[in-house]
Structures are given as structure tokens and as C-alpha cells.
Amino acid sequence: MALTLDETATKVPGTTPVGPAMKGRRTRALSRHLRTRWQLWVMVAPAVIVTLVFAYFPMYGIQLAFREFDFTAGLTGGEWVGMKYFTQFFSSPLFWDLMRNTVAISLTTLVVGFIAPVVLALAVNQVVGVRRRRFTQTATYLPHFISIVVVVGMLQVFLSPTSGVIPNFLGFFGVSDTNYLGDPGAFVPVYVISEVWQHCGWNSIIYLAALSSIDTHLYEAARVDGASRPQIIRHIDLPALVPTMVVLFILNMGGVLNAGFEKVFLMQNPLNLSASEVISTYAYKIGILQSQFSYATAIGLFNTVINFAFLVLTNQVAKRFANTSLW
Amino acid sequence: MARTIRSARPRTSRRALTSTVAVAAASALLLSACTGGDDASDDGGSDASGGGEELNILVVKHPLTKAMSDMAWVGELEKAADVSITWEEVSADWDQKKSTMLAAGDTPDLIIGANAITDSDLATFRTLFEDLSDDMDALPNVQAMFDEVDGAEAMASQADGAVYALPSWKEFWPQAITRQYINQQWLDTLGLEMPTSWDELFDVLVAFDEQDANGNGDPSDEIPFDWSPVTTTGYGYFQPTALLGSLGLPITAGGGTGYFVEDGEVGNFLADERWKEVLTFLNRAYAAGLVNQNVITQDYSAYQSVARGSGDTASVGFSWGWTASDRFGAQLAPQYASMAPVPAEAGQDAPVTWSYDFENLTANHVVVSAQTKAKAAALRLVNAFYDQDTSVQVLFGDLGTNVTKVDDTTYEVLPPADGQSDPSTWKWTSTLADAGPLWIREDLDVTLPTDLAEAVEQSAPLEEAVANVDPDTDVLPPFLKMSTEDLSTISLNNSTILNLTQTKFAEFVTSGGIDDGWDEYVAQLEASGLEQNIELYQKYYDEYSG
Amino acid sequence: MTTTTLRRGRTPGDLLFSIGLGTVIVLVLFATLYPIYFVLIASVSDPTLVATGKVWVLPQGLSTFGYEQILADDRIWTGYRNTLVYTVVGTALNLVVTLPAAYALSRREFGPRRPLMFFFAFTMFFSGGLIPTYLLYRDLNLLDNWLVFVIPSALNVYNLIIARAFFENSLPEELFEAATLDGVGYLQFFWRMAIPLSKAIIAVIGLYYLVQHWNDFFTGLIFVRDYDKQPLQIVLRDILLSNQAFAGGAGGAGGSGGGAYAQQFADQIKYGVIIVSTLPVLLVYPFVQKYFEKGVMVGSVKG
């Protein structure tokens, strides 16, 4: 709705053929735009420059995906091979396994990892007493700082079939002795749960900030109307989070083929490999370790294109139904 | 339209311009600041051997190793070669750092480290490095090593005779890295004999499992059989590939990606019937509960820690390791005996073999950048590394603190001076050790540190098996020089092959089904390009040996 | 804290809700605090006992060897100092670049905001890869230069998007309209009104950036050669990954004696490293946290 307000005033349609009269109008519109909006331009300028220089300029490297990497001919001097490396990837016997595993891991992480911080933020927000609330908050965000190497090391200790505390605990309730580190079926749950455990608190910070901006008068009014706490959560707190949630959901959808490389790699073992070989670990093994730069670039580009397509798609859907969009 | 826009533009672009100018000015500042530093090295880099040149050296060292500038031999080395060195020390994530550095063509004057620049890097980036084959006049020590050490020159040379990376030679290391250990005290306690076949080994493991072998009153806390975690990218030391020797299959360096040579024929044991037999034996042991139930999923820390037992109570019966004290801890080490490889069946025809590891002659320890501005200085330094005294110090540490020079050809490695480290930790803390470029002369008499002496001593039971391997026809050299294209084919196929074999290894060992699944498994391997890879290996092996 | 007292429920439903909530919070706290506690006791326990699952409640085989090794390494202190500088300067620059841009992009009357947002969002996905970036940095003389930790990462698009969404949804439009009537321009409004009213989001974005700089090891790894300029994370990673050097060593050239003792040493150190590297970030959080408390924004509007 509001998004369209600006369009008519300053938009310069570039496709329709225009006559001299239109041209004059457009010039006037442009100069008016600059006269009234120059301050906004000043504000975005540093960001634009940094992005142009450090993000756009190096993008010529993408063509490596379509060229043979030939060091003696320079980075982009190698022979043009078109889709060779993409075809190589698509026709790899591992391709569908990689896709399946990657999507299973990232999609589950995406869904669970999206909901959990919202729930946590709402719950923490309900904790009575400033100090208790602060303590809860701090405690839940702590795991975020444990490095992946150690998290995987801890999974080893906690999930060990013989001495691990978790299998022993679950065994207590009659859950049969699965090897959670080796069973391919357990890989995604273990990965996702540890991921949520580690980042849920950290990711809820943004929602806590959003909750803090709610006008306290709303609560007082609700209280006067006799609303219960669940009702207040549903009708005041949750709506305040929706705009942030939509934006984060769109962004998360752009990670549909992203499964955290380092953690997956460290959690891999021959028993769970059928569930744990993902695009990024494959690209690492073949690309970095074997110097197959063109192939690795092509795989990366494929990954990016799919991710970006999902982002664009989600963005369009959000624009239509939630009235929020990234652009 | 274009014109009108241009006329309207100055407002913004001036502003954009000012920011650009600001950025440019800032970077110009940096630029001058930086070149200020660089100038010195550039000036010093004249090729005339005036001496005192600065060299930038990247060294890939062990994370424990102290700073290069803290090693006394480094100062002497600088003096001997008349250079001044700026070190860049790397001990983690080298692969990632390296690929960017090489692809950007940005190499320091020298790169030092154990296989820091691999043959595969050399195939892709050879123009980055100096061909040393025509500089041997400036490298008399290296030339002497090539003359005296069998295979050293072959290892360093590309197919066209170019030499980009130099190897190291030290002769004290046992031929094999993996040794086989059994708890002798358990055998004695239970009144058992040292096993001499797989069946006997199996029975011994059963006894370990069922009885209270360690005598702590609990008959179920013994782990009869354990091995080092098998990775998803191939096989290595201390892993059950060692059992292939029982069937006479000669592997190199712990197995790697499975390729081996037997009577001049290249094969891959991953599709070999003898590997099937090993897997069957492992599964039999696993199913009987004789193998550590965490064996596939445990990490290296757990693997090492479990074997330490607690106090005097050992917990592992049969396993592989470097030395007994390294594997089981100093306290438990005396309980273990190094054990000769057993034939799979008593009285079988095939002679028993053992993995042939190249630990004395190791490839690619130093490369010189082709862009170096101080080539003469770089060569002087390389030559100085291969000097007799320097080599000893590079390997074991400084003369005085780590090593005593008794006379011209006699050295004695001293025990750790800090009084608490073990000898190998001490060595890795003190110096580059095995990572450095060095040549230990064969006529030297060196009193080894206790860990190495232990490894040598405990290698005795392997001697016969090692002798059964003919280096000329049964060993696949790890340093075959291949073309970029062939390397890429091989690694592409290998990634598919290993994805299958490593998953299947875990499945076969823990769940069985080998007899039913083997043919399909082999068929899948063949469909993944195994034959193509074997042919390529054969081609390069024939070139090498012919 | 009027809201909390107001919300203290007395009806049976509210009581039930409180009990449910309390249980959940306690479980969550246990799930997060226990592993942290585990890291703490593991960092002072015998690593053999940790790896074999014998350390659960109290430290076993007490030893401060790991910490001694970490703290005896003077590279740690250089790393600390460097990281501190990069983090402070970097975060400041980040905020200066991100916030005004986010505000400008939140203005609905700013015509090019959609193409600009696309322009930014595109770079979250597509990049030229490491090698062109490396060459660019070399041409800009950013290699081996501390500014490489600060300038190229001056803008994180993710944070830009979050900040923009916040400005868009939380700044009352009436404020701007009133200000425009007084002849206040965008820059002035941003500085005088938007910033003071957005402390919560600034705190969050600032924290995100701060942690991003604090954890950054990759920049140092690829673009910096001089160890004196390396941040703490590089130093710690060298120590941390030494553990894997042994694991790899078992299958590689280092098999000839990394030594099991050394491997144990590395095991203990890895837990200590977490404590050493996380502590300072923990100390910052309370300062950031107070901006999340209710009433900060409303209070300042009213005031």
C-alpha cells in the first residue's frame, strides 16, 4: 500500500518510448527529486560505495564457473567451456543425494530455527522481574559463542552410545539404544536440535528488541479489559513481531540450500555419510582440497541461483500477502 | 533523454565524487604507508649476491611449535646464508589459505612445510615456482643428497625433469608408521598364547571380552578391539586396513584411497576380494561384541582417551598405534606387546605383508617462488637447510638445549628440558621437526629420543612382513607426477567412489550383509569410474618404473 | 516496571499459565546452562576423563594446565589488543554506514529505494569469490593492512535490512510529519529523532556487528600475513585446531609422533579457549541489554 505512494512522483520508466514533452517532464521530476531527496542520497551513499567496490567489482570472478581454470592464462583467461561444470555436477551420481541431504538439513533448520526464537522471545518477555528476565536472556544466548569444533566435540561426549548422558537418559525411558552419532536417520534431528539449542537465544534478541518498542499503554488497556496473559501475547506481543518475522522469513528462505559447512563436515562419519554429504562438503572435498576451482565455482553458483530464486519467490509472496517486502 | 539526465546528474555525482575521492585519498595514504615497508625488501632483493637480502618465508608448522624467531638454529641459519628472514607462520586452515594465495599468484619467496605445496598444486601452479634443476650448482648440499639417497631425485623431478619442490631424508624412522599391539598382560592373566591366525585372534578377543582380563572385578569393561576413526575421505594409519597385510595385499601409507601395486599391476583394494575377507572378519568381531561399539563414530580424542584406561587398569586389548606409550600412555605401555602381523589362515600360501610408508624420504618440503627478487639468497638459504648440523637441529631442536654434538658425526638427542613433556611433544614444541627441509646423512650416529627408539624397537616384529614387500614391484609411490587433467579425473571419480566405499565400510562392519551386497557394491564401484582411475594410475606407475 | 506488576496474574488461568511458563523457562535454562557449565568444568579437568564421558557434575583430575598454556602464549595478548581495536573501530564504522542508509531506505517517498534494496540484497547471494576479492584487496593495498578488518565489511546487508524494517515499522510517521512542518530535513530528523528513538535496534545491530568482528577469523586467515596484526580468533584457532592436527596426523605425515600427550593437551585447551574468548563479549551484553527493557522508547517519546 504505502509502497506505491512514491512511485508516481519520481519513477522514471525506462522502457516505454517517450516524446520530447515527456522528456521535459521527466527532467523536471528528476531535478525535483534531487532537490527534495538529496539528503537521502547522502545517507545511502557510503553503503552504496562500499557495496559497489567490495561486492560488485569482484563479481567478474563468476565467469570462472564457465571457464577452464588455467593459471597461466590468468584468472579469467581460461578456455570458455560453457555449462561443462554444471553438467558435470548435475550428472554426478551423487547429485540427487546431495540435493536431498542439503534440503533436508537446511529446510528443517529453517522451519524449526525460525519458530523457536519467536517462542523463546515471547516466553522470556513474560518472565516477571527485571533481573530474572535479564538472567534468562543472557543464559539462553550464551551457547551462541561456543565454536563449532567444540559443539561437535560436546555432541561426541553427550551422545556417545556407551557413556553419553543423553542416550543413557533416554534409555531410562525405554528408548532403544540408537547410535545418535552414526544413524543416518538421526543426523538431521541431532544437527537441527543442536543448531536450535545454540542459536535460538541469540536469534531471539531481535524479537526482544521489537517487543521492547511496544507501547505499555496497550498492556494497561488490555488489562483493564480483563485480557488474560495468553490473550495479551496473542493480540499485542505477537502482532508486534510479525513485521520482523516476515523479513527474517524471507531472508531465511534465501538459505534454502545452505547447510552449515563446518558443522556438517565435522559431524560426518562413514556411518552417517549417506545423510550427511551435502553440497558444501562435496564442493569442499572436490574444490578446495583438489584445486578444482572452476568446478567449485560452478557448484557455488548453482547453489546461489537456487537460493536467490527462493528469496525472490518468497519476497513476491510476502509482498502480495503480507504487504512487506525486501524491495 | 540521456542528455537531460546528464544535465541533472552533477548534483549527485559531485557528492559521490567527493566520497570516492575521500576513499581514494585514504587508500593512497595506506598505499604510501605500505610501500614504505615494502621498499626495503625490494631494494634488498637485487640478484647480485651482495648478501644481507631479506626473504619472506611462509612456513607451515605444527600448532604446538614455538615461534620461528625463538629457535636458535634459525639465527645461525640466517647468518650462514647471509639473509634476513621475515617469517609468516601458519598452523591452521592452510588448505584454504593456500588455494587463494596460489590462485592469486601471490607467493612469498619460499614456502616450507611437509608437503605444504603438493604435487597437485604443482600440476596446476607450476609457473609460480622456480625450477631448481638448473640451479644445482648453487645447491651443493641438495645435489649431494640426490647423489647419495636412492629415489630422492626421482621423487623431486617432474616428468620433464624440472625440480620445483625438494624432499627431506632422515633414516631413523621405522619403515612403517602403524604397529600392532596386544595386551600381553591380559594374555598372561588368561593363560593365552599370542595368536597366529585370524581365528586364533578371534578366540583371544572373545576371551578378553568374556573374562575379567584386566582383573578389576568387572568382566564387562574390557574393549577387546579398537581402531582409529576411519574418515569419509579415505584410510590412514592405525586402521583395519592393516589386516590386508594378513592376506598379502601390499598397501602404502595406511591405504589412502585404496590404490596399490602388486607385481607391477595397479589395483584398488576397495574392490578386492581380500578386502571383502577383512570386512567379513571385522563384521564377525563386531557382531560378537568384540569391537568398541563407538568405533565408527568416535572422534580421535575419544579413541586415544579410551585406551588410557584408568590407573593401572587397561581397557583395550588389541589395537594399532605409533608406539605403546603414545597409544596407551606411559603407565600402561609396559602391559602391551608389539605383535607380528598374523596370516589370515595358518599355513596360507600368500606371504604376510605390511603397509609400506614413506616416512624417511618425504616429498615437497620447500619451494622457491619464481617471482622472488632475491633468488641467489633464496638458493643460499635452501642449501643451508640441507647442511649437516642444521638438518639435525631442524629435526630435533637446538644444539645445546635439545641435541648435543659429541663429535663430527655423532649426536645425542637430549631428554625434554622442561622435565614434564614427553619426547615427541618436546620435539614438536622446540622445532619444525619432520616438517622442515633436511637431510640427515646416513653415516651419522645419532642417539635417538626415547619415543623414536621405542618405535624402532617395537618395529622388530614387523620386519619379516615388511621384507616381503618388494619396493620395485609392490609399492605405489605416493609422488607420481600427473597432469592437471588426469588429476582432476581421478579426484572427481574418487569423490564418488569414496562416498560409496566409506558408507559401505561402516555398514558392512556394523550390520553385515557382505556376502549378499558385495557384487552389487563392486558393480557400483565400477560404474563410478574405478577402472578409469586404475588405468590412469597404471599409466603413471609404468612411466615411473619404466 | 508497571507492566510486570500489572501482568502478575491472579486468576486460575493465569496461575496455570505462570506455572507452565516457569517450567518451560527452567527447562530451557537447564538445557543452555548445563552445557556451558560442562565447558567450564571440562576446561579444568583431565581430558582423558572428559573424552571418555566421566566428567558430568564436578571437575575430575583437576588441572589448570590448559589455561596456563593459553595465558602463557603472548600471541594471545596481541590478538586481544588487535581484536579490540578492530571491533571498536569496525562496529563504529558499521553503524555510521548502516543506520543512515537503513533510514533513507525506510522512507517510502524515496523513489529508488526498491532498486537500491535489490542492489544490496543481490550481494548477499552473488559474489565473485575469494580470488578476485584477494586481487582487489591487493590493488587497494588492503592486504596485510589492519583496515581490511574494518572497511570491506563496513556494511552487512542482513543488518541493513533488519534496521530498515525496524525504522519502517516502529517510527511513528506523525513525528516526521510534525518535524517537516518545522522545516527539519532528513539528516536532521535522523540525527535528532530517529536515532534517539531507536536505541533498541541500534543496540541489536551494534551487538550483531560487534560479535561479527569478534568472531572473524577468515579475514585474518586469507588476507593477513603479519602475525602481529592477527586477531584473537586466529590465535585461538591455531590452538583449537591443533586437536585436529593430531586426528589428521594419524592419517598423514604427522603420524610419526604428534604424540598423544600433546593431543590431550590440545583437548583440554579447546574448552579453555571458549572461556577466554567469550568472556569479554559476555561483559558487553548487560550494557546492550538495558535498551531492550520496556518503556525506553515510549519514555523518550513522551519525554
UniProtKB/TrEMBL annotation, chain B:
This is ABC transporter substrate-binding protein. InterPro entries: Bact_solute-bd_prot1. Gene3D superfamilies: Periplasmic binding protein-like II (3.40.190.10). SUPFAM superfamilies: Periplasmic binding protein-like II. Keywords: Signal.
Automatic annotation (TrEMBL), chain C:
One of its GO terms (cellular component) is plasma membrane. It is found in: Cell membrane. Its main location: membrane. Gene3D superfamilies: MetI-like. It comes from the Bacteria. PANTHER family: ABC TRANSPORTER PERMEASE PROTEIN MG189-RELATED-RELATED, POLYGALACTURONAN_RHAMNOGALACTURONAN TRANSPORT SYSTEM PERMEASE PROTEIN YTCP. This is Sugar ABC transporter permease. It comes from Cellulomonas xylanilytica.
